[in-house]
Amino acid sequence: MKIGILIQLLKNLFSKSMTVKFPHESIPIPDGYRGEHDYDINKCIS
Fold this sequence. Notes:
Layout: H1 2-13
């Protein structure tokens, strides 16, 4: 069990971070991106 934790620790130490420093960096927008969802309470029919 301790070996598994050590292996995971070493993997995480030398891998690239998954998070982005948002205001200063941005992620590339995929080609299929169709925009943000829009919710208008006046158009709701239920």
